[in-house]
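Could someone model zinc ion with this protein?
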Amino acid sequence: MAELYADIVVPLAQPAFTYRVDETLRDTIAVGVCVKVQLGSSKLYAGIVWRLHNEAPAFKTVKSVSEYVSHSPRLSQTVMRFWEWVADYYMCSLGEVMRGAMPSALKPEGMTDGEFMRSGIAPKEVRLLRLHPEIADEFALGNAFESLRQAPKQYEALLDLVSKLPQDGMFSGEVPRHFVNADPAVIASLVKKRILTVSSRVLRPGELPPLPVVLPELTDVQQRAMSEIAANGSRPVLLHGVTGSGKTEIYIHLINEQLRADRNVMYLLPEIAMTSQLVARISKYFGERVVIYHSRISESKRAENYRRVAESVGGMLILGVRSAIFMPVDNLGLVIVDEEHDDSYKQNETAPRYNARDCAVVLGRLHGACVVLGSATPSVESYFNVTEGKYGMTVLTERYGGVSMPEVLISDTITAVKRGERSSHFNKALRDRITAALEAGEQVMLFQNRRGFSPYMECTECGYVPMCRDCNVSLTLHKSEGRLRCHYCGRSEPIPATCPSCGAHAVVARGFGTEKVEEELARLFPDAKVVRLDRDTAQSARAYNSVIESFENGTADILVGTQMITKGFDFAGVSVVGILNADNLLNYPDFRAGERAYQIIAQMAGRAGRREKRGQVVIQTSCPDNVVIRQAAAGDYGAMVRTQLAERADFFYPPYCRLLSVTLRFRDKSVLDAAGARFRELLAPVLGQRLLGPQPPVVDRIKRQFLLSFIIKTARGESFAAAKHVLAQASAALNAEQRFKYVDVIVNVDPV
Ligand code: ADP
Ligand code: ZN
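Reply:
Sure, complex below.
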């Protein structure tokens, strides 16, 4: 018989490796299973069998594979096709997809067998109790009870077990150990007396719990949206509904339909919208059928949930963040991407640098599933896809229950200052509204997109600004911590008492972040309870929940925060929302800045007045005539999208072109500059005008490494794949040169 070989993907930036399949696995091995492999001289990895074949590799010493990682589920064909698409489209290896896709407990690695096992999880086993076969009839069982007269605890335990056995008169069923109320010693005695046996096995997902009988009744408008979604079949649909129009309510109905048909559903949200509020709202309907996947659940729970999904034949709801797109789901009937415009769907930091929203469309196509992209402020790209006929669209223009959209006021900061109507960070218009809300016992939410006390410090004598030692960026003042902190690498240092450059006692805080707003509020509104939500206060799930809870139950009056507070919340008591400095949102060197500013303002405004009383929103800005601010204040999405599309057409940006960004990274600046020049030489002859760069990015040094970027723009109708191919060849060629061997070439497809 010909030797059997397996191409195995390991979680590294490497192609698949070929192994010989050991005799012992020959009959059972299959594509998609997880096996233990050795790489190099000793390191052990979990790997996925990607292909089985009889082609002996060219190299002599072929290692063999002889063991499964049995607690890691087998991937289905569809899941494998999806990984391949991600690797191909986002220009990374399958190993990198594996690294991002699987929870670490399911892909153990280690230098020794011991380490390999320890780093994995034990499979989620249940220990099961059953009656010893010798006493599994009524007569023998009676005798067993009789024999335990003198051992009341054992008697009780046996009674408890018997009462939980399936009542089929057979006494042969099994009961999970944790259902039986008894100490380990008691069970051990019963086992010794040959009354019980204990076994373990991996638990199959049991019977699916029943589905809700009553769902909230949809309004006519919502019902129409449902039918329009259905009418699109498997063409993706953009659900464009203003905040509070009942999008979530529609999702609940769509999910219910799929679960009833025993199909699985995937429901994605941005991390910050995965609030306990929303999870509770969904779980209320689908309870045990919900599998949650986000960063605040433990590593072992994640592994368990991944397996539950792999084992599910249908009828489960996966509720998760961007990485949940990799859940090994089959029989998928529906994918929902809520807040589809959110840029956190894009992973930029590590490969695979995927966009879960775009992946959802592909995943839906692979499964023939419906795809619904929902937002109050759809991305310009998705809107464009509607106009091109690629997506369908359904629109909800009104809030549920006749609640009006909030009243929005643009407050000019410069005028306020001139008139003496600005104190601290508040223009009179906002301050008056906060005062009135507090007096009426209502709540206030304030948005500032900088955390910390102030974004930078400056010496008023010489202009010196404290910078990070390792990154080319100014340090942020964190006052309560008493330190300056780098938001790129996390390094911190003490606040300088005098200027390190000129020695003057003149280093002052500039600008303001959420921490400063919180402090000022305490001064201006001494009777109000203020809470703050940003990456600093929400470090643990507990801290995060306690802030939300205090605002939800009305203990807190004012919530200050960064983007974290813009989404997913439905607080009944909020009547006033303030955007403290909208200029920050506009002055951003990115072609999407206008779109983002619109989205943030609209989302923030959407938190105001979600019940009977009309909410009020104040936007503080020094550019009150800015077109985006005007459009956001008017809630005129159509105007915004037209302006943005026109601009992008003029300057040739997506959706009129496709972008690839390339960053070269190296610790030595002169080598990096030379690499940049060489890279240009390699690419320019083929790409011509499509290549822009090299150019240093806004922050051109991070963690002691210098950065240099290129952008490649390809027109619609031109082959994006061809451009990627050229790029892949050029980066290989660059790294093949001795001098540039260690220059990192980081490719980001469709960067956000
Ligand atoms: P969105 O997701 O579009 O922001 P939600 O689904 O959260 O909107 O709806 C806003 C509010 O209106 C929620 O409190 C929700 O419970 C309520 N609501 C929306 N539609 C209905 C409905 N058909 N029946 C009962 N309540 C509804
Ligand atoms: Zn730094």
